[in-house]
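quick q for whoever's on today - can somebody do inverse folding on this one?? i tried earlier but teh output was garbage lol. tokens:
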């Protein structure tokens, strides 16, 4: 199988014959725009030997100081496609350069995550606790903007998206029903359109803002593959159990701050072998989220080579 066939086979829930692998990181600001961003993504793909390309999203919503109260979320603007011209230019350049060789997917932050970038996580959480219905109006408007970006990416020829979501962290809201009332609708509005238009999408349950008591709020979220951490607030959860819960292939297994950052090549490859041996049959090696930007690329190459060499 070539890399495109390998990942599409896994996404279809079929055995791949070898273990695919990919890791992601944020590039420095000099590589966020234009040809420099295109070139850096391609250099990273080649240097690591990973099995698909994930385009980082470095165009967050602007700060919105006018959102001072929950009622103000109705003021959130909906951005036209020209607002997304810089990231769409990067997407188009990468697709043109590499799509014949590997799948190309784009990082897609949820409406909640964009809202947190715009006003700060603490204020957003307070508004959702205070009036989830009013705050959700802003999330829906942000979702409209996200869909404009999604359609631009689809037009450019991407194969799918890395759909990143938050909001179900343990203890985040005073009322745990806030997630279902205010966050799930905007998430699913975007994700369901993505699933209708693209063949390869990864659901990423992001633990950057805290651990989860359990993953059940996300079980019915779409995505051909699920990627998340294996640490819950009550203790670890095995990748095989995550795959069973979500009824789809699992991607992950490596701690983004663990051996892959600090270990020698032998230590990294030993860890990879242990992860893959315990992994579910339908599996792709990866980390629980983006790895530190300063990580030596040789470490990532060592992990990916070990996955590729592994035979069950």
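ok took a stab at it. sequence:
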């Amino acid at each position: 199988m070539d890399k495109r066939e390998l990942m599409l086979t896994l996404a279809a829930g079929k055995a791949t014959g070898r273990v695919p692998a990919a890791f992601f990181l944020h590039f420095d600001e000099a590589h966020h725009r234009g040809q420099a961003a295109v070139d850096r993504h391609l250099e990273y793909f080649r240097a690591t030997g990973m099995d698909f390309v994930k385009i980082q999203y470095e165009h967050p919503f602007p700060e919105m100081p006018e959102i001072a109260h929950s009622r103000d979320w109705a003021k959130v603007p909906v951005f036209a496609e020209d607002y997304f011209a810089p990231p769409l230019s990067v997407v188009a350049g990468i697709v043109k350069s590499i799509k014949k060789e590997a799948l190309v997917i784009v990082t897609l932050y949820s409406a909640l995550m964009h809202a947190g970038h715009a006003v700060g996580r603490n204020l957003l959480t307070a508004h959702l606790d205070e009036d989830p219905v009013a705050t959700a109006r802003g999330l829906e408007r942000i979702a409209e903007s996200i869909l404009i970006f999604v359609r631009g990416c689809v037009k450019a020829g991407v194969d799918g998206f890395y759909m990143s979501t938050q909001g179900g962290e343990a203890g985040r809201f005073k009322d745990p029903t806030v997630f279902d009332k205010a966050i799930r609708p905007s998430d699913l509005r975007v994700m369901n359109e993505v699933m209708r238009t693209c063949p390869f999408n990864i659901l990423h349950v992001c633990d950057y803002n805290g651990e989860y008591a359990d993953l059940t709020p996300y079980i019915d979220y779409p995505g051909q593959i699920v990627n998340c951490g294996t640490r819950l607030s009550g203790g670890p959860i095995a990748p095989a159990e995550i795959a069973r819960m979500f009824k789809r292939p699992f991607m992950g297994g490596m701690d983004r701050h663990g051996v892959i950052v600090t270990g020698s090549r032998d230590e990294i490859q030993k860890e990879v072998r242990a992860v893959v041996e315990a992994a579910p049959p339908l599996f792709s090696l990866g980390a629980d989220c983006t790895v530190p930007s300063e990580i030596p690329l040789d470490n990532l190459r060592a992990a990916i080579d070990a996955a590729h060499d592994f035979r069950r």
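fwiw The radius of gyration is 19 Å. also The first strand starts at residue 53 and ends at 55. so keep that in mind when u check it
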